[in-house]
Amino acid sequence: MLAFEAVARLGSFSAAGNELYLSQSAVSKQVRTLEEYTRTPVFTRHSRGTELTAAGVTLLQEIQPALAQLSAGIDRVRQRHDAHTVTVIATHAVAQYWLFPKVIAFKRAHPGITIRIQSDNAITPAVINKYDFGVLFGNGQWPGLEASPLFHEYVYPVCRVDMPLPDLNHPRDLKQLPLIEMDSSDWDCIDWRAWFAHFNEDYEPHPDALTFNQMSLTYGAALEGFGVCLGWDFLVSKAVNEGTLKRVGDFVYDVGKMDYLVHHAREPLKPAAKTFQHWLLESVRM
User: Fold this and answer.
1) Distance (Å, rounded) from C-alpha 140 to C-alpha 123?
2) Cα distances (Å, whole numbers) of residue 89 to 12, 93, 135
3) Region label for 192, one of left (φ > 0), alpha (ψ between -120 and 50) or beta (otherwise)
4) Which of 112, 117, 120 is nearest to 133 (CA)?
């Protein structure tokens, strides 16, 4: 399959051989074996080079995702066992707005250690064993994982600092404002419906409301003045302190859970991972 994919991508048996460190005849033999197995030609050979047949196009579309997943898996294994590389998985928002600035500061203090961040909103405890660390939201109790608290999650409405606001005496008063919606149907995240429910208020989104499926996008829309978004303290506090965003009322949803730095409890941490863990936990205590 690797030979077939390389020929299809490069358009040449000789180029594929050079990439795979194989002779042209060895690549041709592997492709011929594939054609015998599938009982159909996958390439058309002519004087100008090599082209995929219709069957070859179909086969390529089928195997490319699997090969990409295989390659990514091999990279993760290699990085996990690289003595000077530390791998971390977190949600998109945590990775971009909380973890990234800390990684920059860590790199200045420890230039010999490489940090590789994977951002994925579908993160679950089951995938942590593929990385040195993960950042999980919850109560800190996950079987097989050791968890260290990082930060609480507080959620409150924010908007651009120059957006005019009426008097807001109760959370229900926010319903008259242009609310930027969060579509969290594909992952576990608080939206306006859940936020209002915390204050015992029913809420249904306006059908024409501006809607995004990422915190960072709702945050960006608020910065552009399109309305009020839900702000996670770890994401918006810097902009609020700098005066580009302002809080909308004094209403705060204390989620009652935290984000934790987690790692596999039964697998010892390599020295670089221990250094990163110690530095990161010390940074949140300051």
Assistant:
1) 15
2) 38, 12, 6
3) alpha
4) 117
Residues carrying CATH 3.40.190.290, the chain = 84-286
The two structure tokens encoding residue 80:
């996990």
Cα maximum dimension of the chain: 78
80-138 confidence digits (pLDDT tens): 566 789 999 999 999 999 999 999 999 999 999 999 999 998 899 999 988 999 999 99
The two three-digit tokens of residue 10, written as one number = 């490069």
pLDDT of residue 11: 78
What is residue 139's DSSP assignment? S
231 with 223: CB under 8 angstroms?
Answer: no
The pLDDT of 36-51, averaged and rounded, is 81
The bridge status of strand 49-52 relative to strand 43-46 is antiparallel
Q: Taking a C-beta distance cutoff of 8 angstroms, is the pair 41, 55 a contact?
A: yes
Range 2-80 has CATH code 3.30.300.30:
no
* Type of residue numbered 60: L
Listed residue (122, 95, 124) closest to 213, CA to CA: 122
Q: Give the CATH class of 84-286.
A: alpha beta
Please tell me the distance from the alpha carbon of residue 158 to that of residue 267, in angstroms, as a whole number: 42
3-state secondary structure of 50: strand
